[in-house]
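Hello, quick one for you while I still have it in my head. My current little project is about how a certain protein chain folds up. You're getting the sequence in one-letter code plus the fold written as tokens. Would you mind checking whether the tokens look sensible for this chain? Here's the protein in full, and shout if anything looks odd to you:
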Amino acid sequence: MSVEVSWFAALCDDDYRYLGVHDESLKSSWAHCSEIAVGADQAGYDGILLPSGYQLGIDSVAFAAGIASLTKQIRPLVAVRCGELVVPQLARQLATLDEMLQGRLAINIISSDIPGETLASQPRYQRTKETMLVLRDLLNGKAVDVQGEFLNLQLAPPNLRTVTGQAPLFYFGGLSEPARAVAAECADVFLMWPDTLPAVKALLQDMRERAATFNRSLRFGYRAHVIVRETQAQAIEASRVLMSRLDADQGEKIRAQSLDSSSAGVRAQGQLRENADHDGFAEDHLWTGIGRARSGCGAAIVGDPDQVLGKLRQYMDLGIEAFILSGYPHREECDLFARYVLPQLEHAVLR
């Protein structure tokens, strides 16, 4: 079975040698983040996630345009936040970006509050649904005639098109009831954060059943951190070093910075961490320590190359077709995973 394997560009100031201790050399910048992206391209990763955060880091769309001519085969997965731009403008940006990338674009749809505004979950996901439907139509070159709660548009088919003439794949995730409903109707790839194998199996089954009510099928992606070393003991020691200078108050401050720090997904990561053993493991090789200083994806696959590979294959057996991985520092862990694990995976970009 082939799988899409992507790495992570730390656009949102999320790079550390010691978790929670900022290092100027790892700060979000064009120089640092483009080095991660170009390195992942050269190492043979299929994709690179470009995250989006209003308060932190640099812009995902502008960054993707910058690396378009610097990379050869890797596909940027560009995160965009619903509500930040009017949808026709967003569609124009993304179609332009796809042309610059020669068709190598994928889109990560983010549903969150925008600065200065707080919406309840239901209306926020209604805005996300309308955004996804209209954005897909525009990127497919279709006319738009919609009168929704958030979008009221009558537009002729756009002149600017993607390379294929079709919308790139939409990656999207969320655990709340409104999020699952939107994903079932509008997403191509449903993304999830780390969880135990039984919980992942149950979530996949639920989402398959929901998508079937729309006569659709979903593909599934798994976003996690990774710490891989030649031996399990070395990997566990690396996790301890990473946490060795973390101040609890600083960790809490970092977790609170995200606009979606109170979402159902973030709460689930907290629960996973609370249910872990005294060493922070929720199950074999799934370590939750990273979540002590990170909002969002809060667990890492930890072990030697065979253990990490085996864990990934367990997820694949459940139906995961795409992994988005990261590690600290991002450039160094990117190289380690590429050396020890990536060659053992048959991988290919989702289409």
About this structure: The chain has one domain: 4-225+304-344. The mean pLDDT is 93. Residues 4-225+304-344 form a domain with the TIM Barrel fold (CATH 3.20.20.30). The two ends are 15 Å apart (CA to CA).
